[in-house]
Predict the structure.
Amino acid sequence: MDIQHNNVAGRLWALFSEAADKPKNWAIGIVWCDLLKVPRDEKEGDASKLSIDTRLAIYDRLNAVYREVRILEQQIRDGYDPTRASFMLKDIPRIKLAITPHLLGNQWVEVLKHLDRATVDSLENCAIQLPKEGEIGKDDLEEFKNSVTELMAELSRGKIKDESLSKWLFTLLSAANKAIDSYWIGGARHFREALDYTLGEILLVYRQFKDDLEKNEDAKGFWSRMTQKVLGPLGGFAQKYNVMRPLLTDTGRTVGSVLGYLEDLT
């Protein structure tokens, strides 16, 4: 998917430009699997054979796309005068109709009737006018993905013996992993949300596991690598989302400040 304009409208334009070119006689479920990066196995060759999990994943990602459309609406209303905003938003109802749940076995033509070229091009017009977000390089994203995957695998193999601590660390890593997987549609904002969640969890839970993280060699080493390889880059990626509201500080200092604050309380 070629994203030429790195903002919410640009990502939606890339998605729906590709959607508008799909054959009209293909099954809706198969097309959405392709467009929304929903994995399916060889047994799911046609829409009638899509598993429940695959169908739920399609609807979950359609919901994520719908959320992006709502965010686009809000950005335009907040950023432009009512007359200009009204013009920029005139085709959004058709976009919403295109992603309204249809029977997955029906033909793609049901979706295409809402996606004429003018509707898709209106998203490009929005993308050109809206501020751009900072871009995250493919190599940086891949390196980050590898680090998160590696650490999650260590936890799955029982690297941390304390089950509660292991589950908590896995939850933090899962938030970062979800941000990676949804970057293609949500951009750096999803890293911002993952960062907010992670720092909130550290504030709430860190003291519960403080002794293990500072004294148990396996846990201490794991936490050190996780801070360096995941929390640090996570903050850097989150700073790329600075269109509407700036990130207050970088994650390295933020994590340090949060842990310092917790030390003062103990």
